[in-house]
């Protein structure tokens, strides 16, 4: 086959807006989700990770930001799913895309762009991108044959296949990674000269060790580039086999490969081909590990061939299993996000996935685990502490009490807490832990370790419960001025801790955080992260909340949950003096 010379472009220039600083732009994106079936928790996990990063960045005042998501609506799987459902591809995509938009909205995903690959703006961007590849010599037409996996929409080499038997007991070949059956396919189509980009891709990764995270996935991509074949990529399909897709410009016999079509969504949402310069390549893709090669090898190579820089970062996460098994319709263990949000609440569903999800490894989902975690950390520890510290019996004036430096004097070394005050060494350890928490949380978010950020918050919440329980403010004598000052100081420290936790939890549990901060009378303009301070009175500075009337009682911050199928406990029965004790 004739292969025209590829004119490798000069190293692409990065946009001027991508440098560090408060005005820096950033596009955060989820994958666009394949519209051949309803959403499951794997889809929602991708979206919640991206949403938490987007919300955290907004609270930091880091600069203009966008969060894009959407649906991938072309390809053979859509064609087949529509036929099986007795409908047309456009009708199927309209319905399923609506389900995804509804689920993401219900889960409080704060997306700014919802792109559909069937939209005219996207089709225009894909056709222009194809033309740039063609004009640069990156494409050529040739005959291709190989093992094609329809569910994965890609050809697979022999090294990634295994021998199995199908449902009828006949021998067949399947994908090693997914178990999906493959079929031998021969086609004449367009090829992308991926093999020419092995060196540029390696250079890009070696020069940008943070480009792919977590680090095990970065190493995996480098290993692919250094040890595995990198054959040219088939980037079109015969239109007689695949009419549902974007036709190749000037060649009505071919349809653009669904993955090329889908990947360009990251450009179409920022106005490619005219308006993307303000945003690209200041982009951060959040993707599942099953589509890592498409995003970390094919996509950067396509961008380089089109004269564009790769995205700044690709953040990769692993999968969710259910009681140790892969989710599948045949096993009947697919977790319905709508039912989960109904039972565990939106905030509970978000908190569990982001608290328990570890990007480097697959994580297991089962109902007992969800209930135990949410009851322990949201209902008891956090919600109980808020209820106890604002209860009329403890705080009859319903105010943010005063802090007494005589009761809680500042120490240079908290290990020497033997001074004249009432605070003990553990109390100073609490103050030190909470004071360092905002920066620790920010570092974990930046490192794509949201679960570690929540782990640190949960630990501090337990410390705060220990502080409250240790000093038993309900036993102090209000008639004694010294005891009253110490009681006020205990409450002041507790409310300051809660204010920090509520502020830091906004990206993860936005509704509960809003109720907590509203109960503490923290105004909308006082909820940012850039100016978050903790316990300024301890350092001799004024506290803007001291003496402020608290907000109205918003009830339980988070209800205790029962296992599905069991009778729900009346929330009014949960207002016990011990609700919230640190276990």
From TrEMBL:
Native source species: Calidris pygmaea
Family statement: Belongs to the class-I aminoacyl-tRNA synthetase family.
Listed Pfam families: tRNA-synt_1g
rRNA processing recorded as keyword: no
Residue ranges annotated for the Methionyl/Leucyl tRNA synthetase domain, each copy included: 27-389
A molecular function GO annotation: ATP binding
Compartments where found: Mitochondrion matrix
An example Gene Ontology CC term for this record: mitochondrial matrix
Region (Disordered): 1-23, 561-583
Protein name: Methionine--tRNA ligase, mitochondrial
Known EC number: 6.1.1.10
InterPro entries named in the record: Anticodon_Met, Met-tRNA_synth, Met-tRNA_synth_2, Methionyl/Leucyl_tRNA_Synth, MetRS_core, Rossmann-like_a/b/a_fold, tRNAsynth_Ia_anticodon-bd
Superkingdom of origin: Eukaryota
NCBIfam families: metG (TIGR00398)
Top enzyme category: ligase
